[in-house]
């Protein structure tokens, strides 16, 4: 009966990629802990880059710096 | 001082239904644990059906299958 | 397919009270949004009073003040 | 390696204010627990006022009452 | 910079199994979204079976029913 | 009416340090967004080092490597 919450930045994740995350997480719980996939929830939260910070800066700024390199 | 987080799929929940969830959760905490409603928080998260998975599939696909029955 | 997370302070909640919270939350989701109880998750987190703050103080201190009144 | 999740109502928080929350939270973890800012995550969730409840009502209603005073 | 939170019931998950969940989740995010493993967090929460409900009952009761079959 | 959730590894955080986190987070929300401290919640979760992963390994292993340097 696991619950998996994946939070990533909102930078163009496609429905196909989301489905891969759902399938992969579910397989992992089935393989490692023998959980029932029918009651394994996976929820993906997409977070705006202005709303995610690390190292005192937001991801919007970090992405701009990466491009300038 | 409870915090209640309700996560549901984003499938047309109305403001009236949200208010019922808020009232009902608060009443539950007051009734069962004698909590103060003035400091009982209820937060509802609406999750896109592409972003919620169960049984190796997303809810978008599950809803399509349900309609085809 | 809702997910309900109830966070309360760890102050002697009994298994019977937890079950009431589980039943009540599930009934609420069934009644208001017609959700399937078989895939309605309720998770209760009990948080130490030192780890929960409001109004610049922790709940440990708040409870002591309430007793002194 | 801390993770900080700040949930506020969606009422016009500016990118500059979000950055102040990110910087302030990170500084707090560095100062109090000597954490490494490079692995300190801060995620801000903005919640619609219809989706946040306290005291049996949603914040939409509460804000209207505050204006009428 | 993903954040993965896995919530499972507290039923004897070993450190080795936890490590497999950490590795598997990280590999999934690297493979599907090309994320940097150095900033991919995985947090596992173990929840008491009295505190996890589904279908109006807690997991403690569900496990007892499963044994009686 | 903000909700702040701080997750750190369980490595001997003292009640005094927790209180500093509570006060500092609350002050931050008051200063940046003019929030009411009386309805600003701060919850600290302490996570076992076996249950927190980054870079394919858990924090237990990471701390051992740091000591060996």
Structural descriptors:
homohexamer; 69 residues; alpha+beta; Macrophage Migration Inhibitory Factor; two-stranded parallel sheet; two-stranded antiparallel sheet; 2 helices; 4 strands; elongated; isomerase activity (chains A, B, C, D, E, F)
- Please, what is the average pLDDT of chain A? 97
Largest contact between chains: A-E, 25 and 25 residues
Q: Number of helix segments of chain A?
A: 2
**Into which percentage range does the β-strand content of chain A fall?**
25-35%
Briefly, what CATH class of chain A?
Answer: Alpha Beta
If you consult CATH, what is the topology of chain A?
A: Macrophage Migration Inhibitory Factor
Please report the total strand number of chain A as a whole number.
4
**Total of domains of chain A:** 1
> Outline of chain A, from the CA principal axes?
elongated
Pfam families (chains A, B, C, D, E, F): Tautomerase
InterPro entries (chains A, B, C, D, E, F): 4-OT, 4-OT-like_dom, Tautomerase/MIF_sf
GO molecular function (chains A, B, C, D, E, F): isomerase activity
EC number (chains A, B, C, D, E, F): 5.3.2.-
